[in-house]
Amino acid sequence: MSSEKETPPVKRPAYFVWTSILVGCLAVMAVVNPALLTNSIADISKFFYLKFDWIVMWLPLLAFTVGMAVALSPRFGKIRLGGKDAQPEYSFMSWMNMLFTAGIGVGIVFFGPIEALWHYYHSPIGIQAANLPEYQKVENAMSLALHVWGIPAWSLYTIGGLVMAYFMYQHKTECTPAAPLQYAFKNKKWAKPLGITVTAVAIISIAMSVSSSIAMASTQISSGLQIITGMGFDTLGWKLIVLTSIAALYTAGAVLPIHKGMKLLGDATVFLSILMLVFVFITGPTHYFLSTLVVSIGNILT
């Protein structure tokens, strides 16, 4: 969205320095003792999944409900971000392409197709899944995969982005996760330290998720090239080349203006994804794809 007044850039040294130190320490730990870092992250994740699994299950449903309520509300659903005269800076398709690329990324090429197979062999539904008929195990696996990549995840993205965008465009706050909290509780003494903590956690989370995504992508691309060509691409040298190339593209897309960086990457990614989808759809078992898709969507809705 464009508006008459642009939000001036804001310096954020309060949390940049020590979050950079923490991220640097994690990077050093990943090189020096990767097993320790992996086990530590796994233990932390296991703790949260065991103790707060109910939050993980309810948050997407809550986000979807709130999002639909806002969209259908005669009062809030008609609010135009940036003011009543604001106009979109990008076309609808380019905007959707950027959202699609940022929300899914490399997973759509690799783990997206594999996840259904993972659920087929390791169903989280329960031990009874092993005794189900073959066709029902396939339907359950596809339904779970579509559920994970579908409405629940995008509902969380939508609510998070909507809250930040509303306060940034309507109240001229910073574009940070903590800005809505600091604005809503600006008269409270604890608002500033809370905001710094929230932003720092967001920075560390983004750094870790992006680095892990890029690392997995380099491994998967190298392995994929070796499987397709039969050549020795699955080596440390080729993985480093792929990793450097991906990091360079990502950095260029982040540094360049959005219309030259992320927009072009988003358009290219979606175009290639559509080509791959059409190729698989035409050359594969088309009737089976359509039948499984319809049944899986029906299972999700019911």
TrEMBL record:
The gene is betP_1. This is Transmembrane transport protein BCCT family. The keyword Glycosyltransferase does not apply. GO terms for molecular function: transmembrane transporter activity. The keyword Nucleotide-binding does not apply. GO terms for cellular component: plasma membrane. The lineage of its organism: Bacteria, Pseudomonadati, Pseudomonadota, Betaproteobacteria, Neisseriales. It is found in: Cell membrane. InterPro entries: BCCT_transptr. It comes from the Bacteria. Pfam families: BCCT (PF02028). It is a multi-pass membrane protein. Belongs to the BCCT transporter (TC 2.A.15) family. The chain crosses the membrane at residues 12-32, 52-72, 92-114, 146-169, 190-216, 236-258, 270-290. Keywords: Cell membrane, Membrane, Transmembrane, Transmembrane helix, Transport.
